[in-house]
Design brief:
By secondary structure, the chain is of the alpha/beta class. It has two domains: about 140 residues, Rossmann fold (3-Layer(aba) Sandwich); about 70 residues, ACT domain (Alpha-Beta Plaits, 2-Layer Sandwich), CATH 3.30.70. Helix content is about 25%, strand content about 20%. The chain has six helices and 14 strands. The strands form three sheets. A seven-stranded mixed β-sheet has the order 2-1-3-6-12-13-14, with helices on both faces. Strands 8-9-7-10 form a four-stranded antiparallel β-sheet. It has a three-stranded antiparallel β-sheet with strand order 4-5-11, covered by helices on one side. Helix 1 crosses helix 2. The N and C termini lie far apart (about 40 Å).
């Protein structure tokens, strides 16, 4: 009997798992890992958990969202609480969009603040993506903002002035009908369509009071693994894309 449509693996699912498996090949026992959020990160966490359960890897980790933390705990991955001095050898996360310069849009799953906190405390950030996420220019995917509820009206005014066409993210399961982050903040999705100058936009958003964090991750990732069918490419800023199978260690 065929699986229900919702459970049938897609090419995109296969690419996510391929990217995750490639990254797992560079994880070494003794590492302290940051675990990202979203479906591609979930594929990595699942494969990592299998290695931990089999006794093939001994690692410790901290997750960027409650959902990823719950999955890691379910799979028996040892978890560390945030503390002063804690740094991560490697954080593995997904992206909603990335370009050839490793500029990222992240936060489609609403975990952008915790993601940026962990990834700033990481010695190496590796991004995993299926082929649909690798773009020539950022902006088609809505840029998420995490916003303090009190400041929402003024944040919307300021983002509209920047041409961002902001929409407060809904969540029908909440009493007020609004999506909230793990920190209880609101999510606003900005529709710029094309972000010609990500660095300039990041500065403009940082200057708006009430925006806790924005989803532009610039100058943070060392490399990305982009799965394209059966291929896995390593993307690094300022360097030609290369076949991932040519790297025995982190690129």
């Amino acid at each position: 009997m065929a699986a229900p449509a919702s459970e049938t693996p897609t090419n995109q699912d296969a690419e996510k798992r391929h990217a995750a498996a490639t990254a797992l090949g560079w994880v070494r026992s003794g590492m302290v890992l940051g675990l990202g959020s979203g479906s591609t990160s979930a594929a990595f966490i699942t494969l990592l958990g299998e290695k931990v359960q089999a006794g093939e890897l001994q690692i410790q980790a901290t997750a960027t969202s409650r959902a990823s933390e719950a999955l890691a705990r379910q799979l028996g991955i040892p978890l560390l609480e945030p503390r002063q001095g804690l740094r991560f050898d490697l954080t593995v996360d997904g992206a909603d969009e990335l370009d050839a310069q490793l500029r990222l849009i992240k936060g489609g799953g609403g975990a952008l603040l915790r993601e940026k906190v962990l990834e700033t405390a990481s010695d190496y950030l590796l991004i995993l993506a299926d082929s649909s996420k690798y773009v020539a220019q950022l902006g088609r995917f809505p840029l998420p903002l995490e916003v303090v509820p009190f400041a929402l009206p003024w944040v919307l005014d300021a983002v509209e002035a920047l041409g961002g066409a902001p929409i407060v993210r809904p969540n029908a399961q909440q009493p007020d009908g609004l999506y909230r982050s793990d920190q209880g903040n609101l999510l606003v999705d900005c529709h710029f369509n094309v972000i010609a100058d990500p660095a300039q936009l990041a500065l403009q958003l940082q200057a708006i009071p009430g925006i806790v964090e924005h989803g532009l991750f610039l100058g943070m990732a060392q490399a990305a693994v982009v799965a394209q069918g059966a291929r896995a490419l390593v993307v690094r800023a300022g360097m030609p894309d290369a076949e991932a199978e040519g790297f025995a260690e982190l690129p």
